[in-house]
Task: structure prediction
Amino acid sequence: MIRRLTKKPLDVIIIGAGPIGLACGVEAVKNNLSFIIIEKGCLVNSIFNYPTNMTFFSTSQKIELSGVPFVSHGVKPNRREALEYFRRVKESFDLNVRTYENVESVKKVRDYFSVKTNKGICYSSNVIMATGYYDNPNLMKVPGESLPKVRHYFDEPHPYSGHKVAVIGAGNSAVDVALELFRVGAKVTMIIREDKIKPSIKYWVKPDIENRIKEGSIKSYFNSEVLRISNRSIFIRNKGRILKIENDFVFSMTGYHPDFSFFKKAGIRINKDRVPEFDSKTFETNVKGLYLAGVVCGGMNTDRYFIENSIKHAETVIGEIALRKKIQNRFIK
Result:
């Protein structure tokens, strides 16, 4: 039996309790809107699943929410400090967050949305999708990619000490993984499609990885493509040659993408470049009352939006919802 989780339609349901979902909740509190935030994992689930030793690119000041001070030991906060900070934000504004509740569908029913979760159904006048992208890795679609030795997420380097590990990719995640593994004594090989490390690499890390590659401490194959993965090896095409490299573990750090199928089920159109359709001024999608916020706005271009330049989405979206409610109330009166 499906339970109805709200007695009357809320002003807004926010899907995702990451930094941007929480920012939307904070703005909803400030605008006296009724709301809930629904999260399928824990609070700021993506940050919780970041590598244990990760340091943010942004400074703590740039990712502060609504005046709640973010104090970190260094200029750039680490994962542990970020988890503590966003817990404080939730507590400071007494945000109504439902964790470990999975949204299964979002449907427009006349003037309201029906949001079905694994625990029941909620109703609201508006819905904000702030679901991020970290749950959906970009697959290479090569034989052997589903083997247990292949990972798309990295926690800490210790278990791989002394092993032969391939790291696929040339972005920040791949570089961080390669360096951490190298420092615990893993034999690291980087397999890179491009002809060089990406220029967007964190500036304090870039010289480190370039020097390790130059001195041969980290083996690298540029202009390379993964062809197949086996239990003991990885096969690549490098400059017209097919190479077999002995290998114990593979970290495929090829990026992530939003859940496009979830968007489509809700009626959101996706363009040919795999970017959801939305109004750049209001962040409202082609479905009236259904909004996007955060990195999902970039579709496959996941490096276009990040925490510090997406926080303002919350103010824009909630401001639009609050304005419409105010206008609607005037007509009712």
